[in-house]
Specification:
single chain, alpha/beta, Rossmann fold, three-stranded antiparallel beta sheet, 13 strands, 22% helix, 12% strand
Length: 487
């Protein structure tokens, strides 16, 4: 594990802020005086990233709403280009649900835990089943307890990754997921578990040292309480002031990767003028995800374009793959900051009131995290390097898009499973020998040598003691953690 010392700070004026890369549009028609307006208060801290604010993206999507209405006043998921039904079918997830892993279980992500470092997860329908969400530490001072989501971003991502309405037959047995009606809300990996580490409060902001601590905590506790954390979703980003080789956030992401966890990171929402992907996606070890766009057509995912907001890369670093990211539908958090400030995010014709629509590379990253969970249930022996090599090699190229814009293209999880299963495709891709050999990040710009994980290890963080209110609020924000040297 890469070793650095981190020092925990209180949230205060002048501290670096890290915001969700997601679906909040800046300026007119977005959050107004709400959370998005905080983007004008980008903060900096020496030796780390700067210019951290709520990035591009957008809640809602009129063209997708119109398509989903299909000529009447009710949303039809099978006609909605961004519905979970459409997305899970478009990249091949629904086909995988029909297959079985080596134990004979349907491939739904079962047995795999995805760590979601975000704004928390609310216990809304689809995420409320016993054991679906495990709540890790809450790094915020939010009034909402138990890791609940005051902002609305984390719950949306959780729905995309592993939402599950758990349909049952009349006899009480579970219905095969691939046969469920389009209106039943199922994420990419509906059988996967979620570990929620709440880093951002109701304003959508956190600090880089909190993200580093959160990543370190996940690595140290990835097998606690029956969890099997094999994926971590980072739907946020920042502009780095230094190369990844000395960037502390990149070093923390690499540490998770080397521990056997596939780190999926958003590329950013700054479009063609981005000048590169954001941190930590800039680290070449992790899986950097851009967003694709179906041009408001249900079958548009067969030949998508690169979403106009998706950050373009450079010859040094660009996105690895694309995934659906335009006008996606997922679970709503009623009364959250995003929900209150963006009524246009409500789905036209949705009679349930459960759903919300958003665009961003946050959403695309969540789609990929769910897809990775499917692959790892089917092939738990795969290393992070092998998972990345598989998804990149089997992605569908995007017509008229350069590798700097689209990476290898849009993921195809069915093709990825076929390659991982073996045979000629597996041998041709050389997955068994897939090993990345980039220079490792030391993370030493702005921090001291030492042990990043030391103070997080041991029984004091294990078991029920880190679930629930004990770890919420001020205990993570007071002097107790200030200037703490973990070495």
């Amino acid at each position: 594990m890469t070793t650095i010392t981190w020092r925990r700070h209180e949230r205060r004026p002048g501290l670096l802020a890290l915001a969700a890369v997601g679906a909040v549009a800046l300026g007119a028609g977005s959050a107004g005086a709400g959370p998005a307006s905080a983007a004008s208060h980008a903060r900096t801290m020496p030796g780390t990233s700067s210019g951290l604010s709520l990035l591009g993206g957008k809640w809602g999507g009129k063209e997708a709403d119109v398509a989903g209405l299909a000529g009447d006043k009710v949303n039809h998921p099978e006609s909605d280009p961004g519905s979970l039904f459409t997305i899970t079918r478009a990249i091949g997830a629904r086909q995988l649900w029909k297959h079985q892993d080596p134990t004979g279980s349907p491939i739904t992500g079962a047995g795999v835990t995805v760590a979601l470092l975000d704004s928390g997860v609310s216990g809304v329908p689809g995420l409320a089943a016993p054991g679906k969400v495990t709540y890790g530490p809450d790094f915020t001072d939010d009034t909402a307890g138990g890791g609940q989501d005051d902002f609305g971003h984390g719950t949306f991502m959780a729905g995309l990754i592993a939402g599950n309405d758990a349909p049952v037959k009349k006899d009480g047995t579970a219905m095969p997921l691939d046969t469920t009606a389009p209106a039943v809300q199922e994420g990419l990996a509906p059988g996967a578990g979620l570990l929620s580490v709440k880093l951002a409060g109701a304003d959508g902001y956190t600090s880089v040292d909190q993200v580093i601590a959160g990543l370190s905590w996940v690595v140290a506790h990835r097998h606690d309480n029956g969890m099997n954390v094999r994926v971590v979703n980072l739907s946020f980003g920042a502009t780095a002031l230094q190369p990844y080789q000395v960037d502390p956030l990149a070093a923390a992401a690499e540490a998770a990767w080397q521990a056997g966890i596939v780190v999926v990171a958003s590329a950013g929402n700054d479009g063609p003028s981005a000048g590169g992907v954001v941190d930590p996606a800039l680290d070449p070890f992790v899986l950097a995800v851009g967003a694709s766009d179906p041009k408001a057509k249900v079958d548009g995912w067969k030949q998508p374009i690169v979403a106009d907001f998706s950050s373009r890369g450079t010859t040094v670093r660009h996105t690895d793959v694309l995934a659906p990211g335009r006008s996606l539908v997922s679970l709503r958090t009623p009364g959250s900051s995003i929900d209150t400030a963006n009524p246009q995010g409500l789905i036209a014709g949705d009679t349930s009131g459960r759903l919300f629509r958003g665009s961003g590379t946050s959403q695309a990253a969540a789609v990929v995290s769910g897809a990775v969970a499917l692959l790892l249930q089917a092939h738990p022996e795969l290393t992070p390097d092998q998972v990345k090599a598989d998804l990149v090699a089997t992605a569908a190229a995007v017509k008229d898009a350069s590798v700097l814009d689209a990476g290898a293209g849009e993921i195809n999880v069915g093709a990825a499973l076929t390659a991982a299963d073996g045979g000629k495709a597996h041998d041709t891709l050389g997955l068994d020998s897939a090993v990345q050999s980039f220079p490792a990040s030391t993370g030493l710009d702005g921090v001291d040598a030492g042990d990043l994980s030391g103070s997080w290890d041991g029984a004091r963080w294990n078991g029920a003691r880190w679930n629930g209110a004990r770890w919420n609020g001020a205990r993570w924000n007071g002097a107790r953690w200030n200037e703490l040297d973990s070495s």
